[in-house]
User: Fold this.
Amino acid sequence: MNTLPALNAAQGSALPVIFMALMGLSLLIYVVLDGYDLGVGMLSAAVREGDRDRMIASIGPFWDANETWLVLAVGLLLIAFPKAQGVVLTALYAPVALMLLGLILRGAAFDFRAKGNPAHKRGWDCAFAAGSALASLTQGWMLGRYVTGFDDRAGALVFAGGIALALTACYVLLGAGWLLIKTEGELQRRAAVWAKRAWPAVVAGLALVSIASPWMSATVRARWFDMPGIIALAPLPLMALLALAALRGLLNSHRVLGKLCWAPLALMGVVLTLSFFGLSYSLYPFVVIDRITLWQAAAADESLRFLLIGAVLTMPVILAYSLFSYSVFKGKATALAY
Amino acid sequence: MDPLILARMQFALNITFHILFPTITIALGWVVLFMLWRWRRTGESAWLAAYQFWTKVFALSFALGVVSGVTMSFQFGTNWPGFMERAGNIAGPLLGYEVLTAFFLEAGFLGIMLFGRERVSPRVHLIATATVAFGTTLSAFWILSLNSWMQTPAGYEIRDGVVHAVDWWAVIFNPSFPYRLAHKLLASGLTVAFLLSGVSAWQMLKGATRPETRRVMRLGLTIGAVLIPLQIAAGDLHGLNTLQHQPAKIAAMEGVWTTERGAPLLLFALPDEQARENRLAVGIPRLASLILKHDAAGEIRGLDAFEGAHPPVKPLFFGFRVMVGVGMLMLIFAWGGWWLYRRSGWLRLPRAWLWGLALMSFSGWIATVAGWYVTEIGRQPFIVYGLLRTGEVAARNPGSMIAASLAGYATVYLALLIAYIAAIKRMAEKSAPLAPASPAALASPASARDPAPVISRTFA
Assistant:
């Protein structure tokens, strides 16, 4: 594989960088949005049927749209970086297949639990929770494999396993945060407890990435620990730590059940955004770390330009009507009974 | 087993399962919008009941379309990495536009359409419903444009073995696109027409007739009766277009092994790929030439002209006959049913017709899948016709891994298909729905302002 020498040679057009940013942004939005509904899916295994109906009703109007961000992210990978998608998706073949099975199961169960035979409802509920867990775990595993450049050594695999658990914990925390906003009473109190339980795993996971990725990759190490850089970059992890600490403190306060119910989800969004920027800084300009740069992988400029016009025109509109949809369904969610 | 075969089986399984649901949602979105509009206009609660029932079917179909569609977007990369590497400059932007303009639109407004009726004004709700319908159709526009480009590539040049776009207008509106789009949209309309009348027939047979059943039956039969002749005409034009651009596909569909003048239309035959001839052929002399060339003595190029680069004959030959056969049944049942139903004052149909219609509930699926097999297998051995062979772009994953995931998908899809049909049957047989709210109460602006609780899909 060509490495650094080719990097400068092929560098030039700004379009691949723009598309890398768009892909990253879609992935970040996906992780936050589908993260909360996958989290709610996993947590739905822990409650009785009435509460489960309420939890699932709270994500009902949104999950389709949330999942569309994943389609956009993988679409942009295929579209903008055709020479990297083969490497990435071939290496991740098995976890991708498992993730898709998970997503299929949960998406279908979501509808069938309400419309199918009531005798099968429990079965669909299990499929819903299990599918959510499978999708979360495999996404984390893929993230771990991707960050290590698909390294097959035991240490890297353990690392990927750790990320799988950590991302799942992030999703649980997001899900609990969503339930704090959307529910009230006993269920909301339980959501706060779930958030507290997920918190240490989230912190441990972020610590693992921060320590292990520079330890495993010389490229990342050089990025972060060169002298002037380290000072400029220090705010990134510090702010993330601060947000996490604030989140934990808030969970002890009664206000998280009232006026500040939106804060845990928002803080978790901040943490994930900061982590995302940290990760981007570690990897840039690679699409596959130490192997393929984004310029080497990019599609032709005329194709990217044609698509960019569409993206610039539609993304603001998409954001606008997504916000409209959230505003239509603002407030607490309650399920009706037959 | 050969990984290429496995990869193709897996992709074929996925697109086969996937296409079932968009085929329903594309047209059902508009039908549901029509029901909602009728209810708003007339205030008749039967239209609201119809809207509520078919919205549930829409939501279920949409969900299955989404999850299998997400799978498909990944399988482009996992199964055919070479496709994006070589043809991504064309395929990428078309897919990108589909996601940006259509997927987000439908998914963004679906929530409001399904659960927002009591949270937004009637007008906004109607607009949201129309937007979802428009989004599903727009999605068909983009993906069929890409599919058609793979069949009849245009507006491109090849530099260093990679396809580059030179004229986007020519790429999008490539020669087979208008025909394929019309054929697919009509297929979707017919699929929904027969689902509407089939479910209504089932309700009448099972004594589960509801206030809306007779109207939905009329609606289904009317849509079917109007669309089927249009579909036959569109199919004929599509065939002529294919003859012009992909003559090998037509030769395989018609079982024409050697170039001949005045080719017969084969009603039945057993194509023999080894001997390169047909056995037990029963045909109508000269009719194929007449249909395809509009000249009874017209020359049809046979498969001998394309040796080594033509598709397998059996699946095309039989797939085409299944599609046309179902189309003919549709013609009989839609026209005959409409006439009989009208004569009874839109009240009843003979039991035999009801059984026929009930059995044809999913006939649209059979015709659609058979038709897609014809066109997709008919493109082989190419993935982009004449430019890129399927074997060149396949992934090099170990066969065992593909086989294992194939088994996983197959199991899940089969279970979901059974559950889908069972759920529709169950919903159809459920007796009278909950008393529908009066349109006046729902139409009043005051109630629209109060945020009502989010209602789970059970009660949508």
The radius of gyration of chain B is 24 Å.
